[in-house]
Amino acid sequence: MIKTWSTPLRHEKRREEPCALCGGRDFSARLRCEGFGYVRCKQCSLVQMNPQPDAEAVKRRYSGDDYLEYEIANEKTFLELEMLALADAGFYQFESGLDLSGRRALDIGCATGALPAKLRERGWQAEGVEINGRQADYARRTRGLLVYERPLEENRLTAGAYTLITASHLIEHLRRPRVFLAEARRLLAAEGRLFLTTPNIDGFQARLFGSRWRSAIFDHLYLFSAKTLTRLLEQEGFLIEKIVTWGGLAAGSAPRPVKFVFDKLAKRLGFGDVMLIRSTGL
Ligand SMILES: [Zn+2]
User: Fold this and answer.
1) How far is the CA of 45 from the centre of ligand 1 (A)?
2) 47 Cα: distance to centroid of ligand 1 (angstroms)
3) Do 112 and 138 meet the contact criterion of CB atoms below 8 Å apart?
4) How many Å apart are CA 138 and CA 212, to the nearest integer?
5) Predicted local distance difference test score (pLDDT) of residue 202
6) More reliable by pLDDT, 92 or 62
7) Residue 226 · residue 272 · CB < 8 Å
8) In angstroms, what is the span from residue 177 Cα to ligand 1's centroid?
9) Is 80 exceeded by the pLDDT of residue 249?
């Protein structure tokens, strides 16, 4: 099983953190990986890396050059997957009910800017947030996008300014997912929607592969389930509208027809490898 690309393991300051969902400190070991591990909160079942790196260490992870090549090489595939997932989650119905002129969209963790560029093509006034300087530069230079380079909550963006907020494969990297969601909620317009994509710890692949699961990587500080992420979203003022999951078997792990059927089932039954939650403001 090939894991998702991650910054290389390094020695950094780490400390035990309470559960980011309920504040509990009673954990059981969940996944033991090479050089790091995840625990499960006994109270609310949130899975988080523990001990966790400090803020400086996390910042350093994303200040390097290595991410850019990976993102450029994969941006087309990632965009296609994200557009399919958005379609499944009812994005096009949501969009078709809007007059897009002057509507702002914000893609947080926009990497090379492929998604905001696509949204702009569709009529959105699309912007991005990307803390990796080289990727932010790339998105500005090659796509002419407006990209904020600080973490979301440090940009002092206007409350209620965004009708669409997307964050794909981002929240699992953050030290403070609650702070992030609170800020996203503040920025969301009254009729706006948040589309959040993240690996699914309750999915079939996570169960099958354990610590070899492709999403159990050094860069992922939280491994959410639909249940834990729903609870966090609701606590921060979101109303869940739809949850979709996809990806049953890893590519190449089974004959194509088997994978096809399994992927369909995973999607229908909610045990897919990745999930997308669509929510609106309460
Ligand atoms: Zn907890």
Assistant:
1) 6
2) 8
3) yes
4) 32
5) 95
6) 92
7) no
8) 13
9) no
Secondary structure (3-state) at 204: helix
pLDDT at 64: 78
Phi-psi region of 252 (alpha: psi -120 to 50; beta: other; left: phi over 0): left
Where do the DSSP E strands lie in the chain? 14-15, 27-33, 36-41, 47-49, 52-53, 104-108, 125-129, 146-148, 162-168, 188-199, 222-223, 238-246, 274-281
pLDDT surpasses 80 at 276: yes
What values do phi and psi take at 253, rounded to 5? -90, -10
- Report d(CA 54, CA 15) in Å as an integer: 7
CA 38 from chain center: how many Å?
18
Least Cα distance to 26 among 11, 42, 15, 38 occurs for 42
Confidence of residue 1 (pLDDT cuts 50, 70, 90): low
Share of residues in the chain with pLDDT > 70 (%): 99
Distance 21 CA to ligand 1 centre (A): 5
Question: What is the pLDDT averaged over residues 247-262?
Answer: 75
CA atoms within 13 A on the CB side of 228: 26
Q: Which domains does the chain have, with CATH numbers?
A: 61-206+219-281 (3.40.50.150)
Q: For the residues 73-89, what does the mean pLDDT come to?
A: 93
Residue spans of alpha helices (H) in 35-164: 55-61, 66-88, 91-96, 114-121, 133-143
Q: How confident is the model at residue 267 (pLDDT cuts 50, 70, 90)?
A: confident
Question: By the 8 A CB rule, do 40 and 28 touch?
Answer: yes
Angle at 104 between CA 102 and CA 106, to 5 degrees: 165
What value does the mean pLDDT take over residues 185-196?
97
Q: How far is the CA of 263 from the centre of ligand 1 (A)?
A: 31
Measure the CA–CA gap between 54 and 38, rounded to whole angstroms: 16
